[in-house]
Amino acid sequence: MIVRKLRLRKGWSQDQLAELADVSVRTIQRIERGHTPSLETARALAAVFEVDVTTFTKEHRDMTRNENKRTATAADTRDEHLQPDEAEAIEYAKGIKDFFSGVISFVILAVVFFMIFGFDEPVLYVIFGGIALWVAVQGLVAFEIIRMPFQNMERKIAEKKLGRKL
User: Fold this and answer.
1) Residues 6+ apart with CB under 8 A from 7
2) Which pLDDT belongs to residue 61?
Protein backbone atom coordinates (compact mmCIF):
# COMPACT_ATOMS: atom_id res chain seq x y z
CA MET A 1 0.00 0.00 0.00
CA ILE A 2 2.96 2.31 0.55
CA VAL A 3 3.69 2.09 -3.17
CA ARG A 4 0.19 3.25 -3.98
CA LYS A 5 0.42 6.19 -1.59
CA LEU A 6 3.78 7.25 -2.97
CA ARG A 7 2.57 6.81 -6.56
CA LEU A 8 -0.57 8.87 -5.97
CA ARG A 9 1.44 11.58 -4.21
CA LYS A 10 3.51 11.95 -7.37
CA GLY A 11 0.37 11.83 -9.51
CA TRP A 12 1.55 8.83 -11.53
CA SER A 13 -0.51 6.04 -13.01
CA GLN A 14 0.49 2.42 -12.52
CA ASP A 15 1.69 2.40 -16.13
CA GLN A 16 3.92 5.43 -15.58
CA LEU A 17 5.41 3.98 -12.41
CA ALA A 18 6.02 0.63 -14.09
CA GLU A 19 7.81 2.38 -16.94
CA LEU A 20 9.93 4.51 -14.60
CA ALA A 21 10.89 1.54 -12.41
CA ASP A 22 11.35 -0.74 -15.42
CA VAL A 23 8.95 -3.38 -14.09
CA SER A 24 5.65 -4.70 -15.39
CA VAL A 25 2.32 -3.10 -14.53
CA ARG A 26 1.25 -6.46 -13.11
CA THR A 27 4.17 -6.28 -10.65
CA ILE A 28 3.06 -2.82 -9.50
CA GLN A 29 -0.50 -4.11 -9.06
CA ARG A 30 0.68 -7.07 -6.97
CA ILE A 31 2.84 -4.86 -4.77
CA GLU A 32 -0.01 -2.38 -4.26
CA ARG A 33 -2.22 -5.28 -3.15
CA GLY A 34 0.28 -6.15 -0.42
CA HIS A 35 2.75 -8.60 -1.94
CA THR A 36 6.38 -8.14 -0.97
CA PRO A 37 8.52 -6.95 -3.89
CA SER A 38 11.75 -8.70 -4.78
CA LEU A 39 14.94 -6.96 -3.73
CA GLU A 40 15.58 -5.85 -7.32
CA THR A 41 12.07 -4.40 -7.63
CA ALA A 42 12.37 -2.75 -4.21
CA ARG A 43 15.63 -1.11 -5.29
CA ALA A 44 14.04 0.14 -8.52
CA LEU A 45 11.05 1.56 -6.65
CA ALA A 46 13.31 3.14 -4.02
CA ALA A 47 15.30 4.84 -6.77
CA VAL A 48 12.16 6.12 -8.48
CA PHE A 49 10.58 7.42 -5.27
CA GLU A 50 13.92 8.58 -3.82
CA VAL A 51 13.38 6.66 -0.57
CA ASP A 52 15.30 3.96 1.29
CA VAL A 53 14.98 0.36 0.05
CA THR A 54 13.81 -0.74 3.50
CA THR A 55 10.59 1.19 2.87
CA PHE A 56 9.48 -1.69 0.68
CA THR A 57 10.79 -4.63 2.69
CA LYS A 58 8.49 -6.88 4.70
CA GLU A 59 10.12 -6.08 8.04
CA HIS A 60 9.59 -2.35 7.57
CA ARG A 61 5.99 -2.87 6.51
CA ASP A 62 5.32 -5.10 9.52
CA MET A 63 6.71 -2.46 11.88
CA THR A 64 4.65 0.25 10.20
CA ARG A 65 1.55 -1.93 10.30
CA ASN A 66 1.99 -2.55 14.04
CA GLU A 67 2.38 1.17 14.68
CA ASN A 68 -0.70 1.89 12.62
CA LYS A 69 -2.71 -0.73 14.52
CA ARG A 70 -1.93 1.01 17.77
CA THR A 71 -3.00 4.41 16.49
CA ALA A 72 -5.65 3.42 13.96
CA THR A 73 -9.30 4.13 14.45
CA ALA A 74 -11.99 1.73 13.37
CA ALA A 75 -12.83 4.06 10.50
CA ASP A 76 -9.78 2.74 8.64
CA THR A 77 -10.55 -0.94 9.16
CA ARG A 78 -10.76 -1.44 5.42
CA ASP A 79 -7.16 -0.40 4.99
CA GLU A 80 -4.79 -0.03 7.91
CA HIS A 81 -2.52 2.37 6.03
CA LEU A 82 -5.15 5.05 5.38
CA GLN A 83 -5.72 7.97 7.68
CA PRO A 84 -9.38 8.80 8.43
CA ASP A 85 -9.33 11.84 6.14
CA GLU A 86 -7.79 9.76 3.33
CA ALA A 87 -10.48 7.08 3.72
CA GLU A 88 -13.16 9.77 3.65
CA ALA A 89 -11.64 11.30 0.50
CA ILE A 90 -11.56 7.89 -1.18
CA GLU A 91 -15.22 7.28 -0.28
CA TYR A 92 -16.08 10.73 -1.69
CA ALA A 93 -14.21 9.94 -4.91
CA LYS A 94 -16.01 6.58 -5.19
CA GLY A 95 -19.35 8.35 -4.83
CA ILE A 96 -18.43 10.80 -7.58
CA LYS A 97 -17.24 7.95 -9.81
CA ASP A 98 -20.46 6.02 -9.22
CA PHE A 99 -22.48 9.12 -10.07
CA PHE A 100 -20.71 9.64 -13.38
CA SER A 101 -21.04 5.94 -14.18
CA GLY A 102 -24.77 6.30 -13.60
CA VAL A 103 -24.96 9.37 -15.83
CA ILE A 104 -23.13 7.59 -18.65
CA SER A 105 -25.33 4.50 -18.30
CA PHE A 106 -28.44 6.67 -18.31
CA VAL A 107 -27.39 8.54 -21.45
CA ILE A 108 -26.50 5.33 -23.29
CA LEU A 109 -29.78 3.64 -22.34
CA ALA A 110 -31.83 6.71 -23.24
CA VAL A 111 -30.17 7.04 -26.65
CA VAL A 112 -30.62 3.34 -27.42
CA PHE A 113 -34.27 3.18 -26.32
CA PHE A 114 -35.23 6.40 -28.09
CA MET A 115 -33.49 5.21 -31.26
CA ILE A 116 -35.32 1.87 -31.12
CA PHE A 117 -38.80 3.09 -30.14
CA GLY A 118 -38.69 6.66 -31.46
CA PHE A 119 -39.55 9.89 -29.74
CA ASP A 120 -43.31 9.40 -29.92
CA GLU A 121 -43.53 6.86 -27.06
CA PRO A 122 -44.80 8.72 -23.98
CA VAL A 123 -43.92 5.82 -21.66
CA LEU A 124 -40.23 6.36 -22.44
CA TYR A 125 -40.46 9.96 -21.26
CA VAL A 126 -42.04 8.82 -18.00
CA ILE A 127 -39.46 6.06 -17.42
CA PHE A 128 -36.41 8.10 -18.34
CA GLY A 129 -37.79 11.16 -16.54
CA GLY A 130 -37.94 9.10 -13.35
CA ILE A 131 -34.46 7.72 -13.91
CA ALA A 132 -33.14 11.24 -14.63
CA LEU A 133 -34.64 12.44 -11.36
CA TRP A 134 -32.95 9.56 -9.50
CA VAL A 135 -29.59 10.32 -11.17
CA ALA A 136 -29.96 13.99 -10.20
CA VAL A 137 -30.57 13.05 -6.54
CA GLN A 138 -27.60 10.68 -6.68
CA GLY A 139 -25.47 13.58 -7.97
CA LEU A 140 -26.61 15.86 -5.15
CA VAL A 141 -25.70 13.18 -2.62
CA ALA A 142 -22.39 12.35 -4.32
CA PHE A 143 -21.28 15.99 -4.35
CA GLU A 144 -22.54 16.34 -0.76
CA ILE A 145 -25.00 19.10 -1.63
CA ILE A 146 -27.63 17.19 0.33
CA ARG A 147 -27.06 14.63 3.07
CA MET A 148 -29.25 11.60 3.50
CA PRO A 149 -29.93 10.40 7.06
CA PHE A 150 -28.63 6.91 6.26
CA GLN A 151 -25.23 7.96 4.88
CA ASN A 152 -23.42 7.21 8.14
CA MET A 153 -25.58 4.18 8.90
CA GLU A 154 -22.72 1.66 8.52
CA ARG A 155 -20.63 3.50 11.06
CA LYS A 156 -23.51 3.83 13.53
CA ILE A 157 -24.35 0.13 13.28
CA ALA A 158 -20.70 -0.81 13.80
CA GLU A 159 -20.45 1.53 16.81
CA LYS A 160 -23.60 0.00 18.30
CA LYS A 161 -22.28 -3.53 17.76
CA LEU A 162 -18.88 -2.70 19.27
CA GLY A 163 -20.35 -0.62 22.08
CA ARG A 164 -17.87 2.20 21.47
CA LYS A 165 -17.20 5.10 19.12
CA LEU A 166 -15.16 4.48 16.01
Assistant:
1) 13, 14, 17, 28, 32
2) 52
